[in-house]
Design brief:
Shape: globular
Bound molecules: adenosine monophosphate, zinc ion
Structural class: alpha+beta
Distance between the termini: 29 Å
Strand content: 15-25%
Order of helices and strands: HEEEHEEH
Largest sheet: 5 strands, antiparallel
Number of strands: 5
């Protein structure tokens, strides 16, 4: 895909600090890490977002994310990990090539804060669940 920065990394046109590579998946350090070892896992083939990634390949991407999460704990000394995917700009996606963030966590003082402000009231949960389940 022209003008995709992650495709350029896959093709070797832009350098990266490689963490893992196989025929279908590449993992490399995020250039602006949130914490030590912040890694991005991507399919080598271009898909704009998670929404378009075939499920077998999605499974391979997640399996690599799991391995990196484990290595973050055993080799970097992380105490936990956040696995994050942003889908579409409204959710914070800035690079439109599907990727999963593996973010090792070391202490409560890490700069990353994932907060769920559960302040939505009056949602019709049975109807929402039914609508979603009809489409899956
Ligand atoms: P997102 O906001 O979920 O789309 O995440 C995109 C991530 O890609 C950000 O965390 C960026 O720091 C990272 N990023 C952008 N360009 C590069 C690059 N050339 N090498 C490594 N990471 C990059
Ligand atoms: Zn791409």
């Amino acid at each position: 895909m022209d003008n995709c920065i992650f495709c350029k990394i896959v093709n070797g046109d832009i350098p990266c600090y490689k963490v893992y590579e196989d025929a279908e998946v590449l993992a490399f350090l995020d250039v602006s890490p949130v914490t030590k070892g912040h890694t991005l896992v991507i399919p080598k083939e271009h898909f704009d977002s998670l929404l378009y990634c075939p499920k077998d390949l999605l499974g391979k991407v997640m399996a690599v994310a799991q391995k990196i999460a484990q290595a973050s704990i055993t080799t970097l000394g992380a105490k936990g990990v956040n696995i994050v995917n942003n889908t579409n700009p409204i959710a914070g996606q800035t690079v439109m090539h599907f990727h999963v963030h593996v973010i090792p966590r070391y202490s409560d003082d890490d700069q990353l804060k994932l907060e769920f402000n559960k302040n939505l009231e009056n949602l019709n949960l049975p109807v929402i669940a039914e609508n979603l389940s009809k489409k899956i």
